[in-house]
Design brief:
Layout (H helix, E strand, L loop, with lengths): L1 E5 L20 H15 L7 E8 L9 E7 L5 E6 L4 E9 L11
Length: about 110
């Protein structure tokens, strides 16, 4: 698996409402950042990304360092794991769709 840095600013506006007094990174923010980073790395349009599966394993506090491990599968999808230095946070699979909404076929 390859590894990229994933950074969520401790000043991200999502922390104000998620949850006051005990902030955690919302899962949607984690997935949004993972899609953005992986789309750029794969030279793909993030708008054509489909989250085929996602599982949240632990919470993330503001400022915790994160990494994004990923590997391309033979079908073109990308398996990913978001981690802190000591634990897995989330895992899942991304796939790219064509303009018509269908997944691309392997040649």
């Amino acid at each position: 698996m390859d590894t990229l840095n994933l950074q969520i600013s401790p000043l991200h506006p999502a922390f104000e409402g998620h949850f006051p007094g005990t902030p955690v990174v919302p899962g949607a923010v984690l997935l949004d950042e993972a899609v953005r980073i992986l789309a750029a790395a794969a030279n793909q349009n993030a708008a054509r990304c489909e989250i085929a599966s996602a599982k949240f394993l632990s919470f993330v506090r503001p400022g915790e360092p994160l990494s994004l491990e990923h590997e391309r599968r033979p079908d073109g999808s990308i398996r990913f794991v978001i981690r802190t230095p000591d634990r897995a946070i989330a895992s899942g699979t991304l796939a790219w769709t064509l303009a018509d909404g269908h997944a691309p076929r392997e040649a």
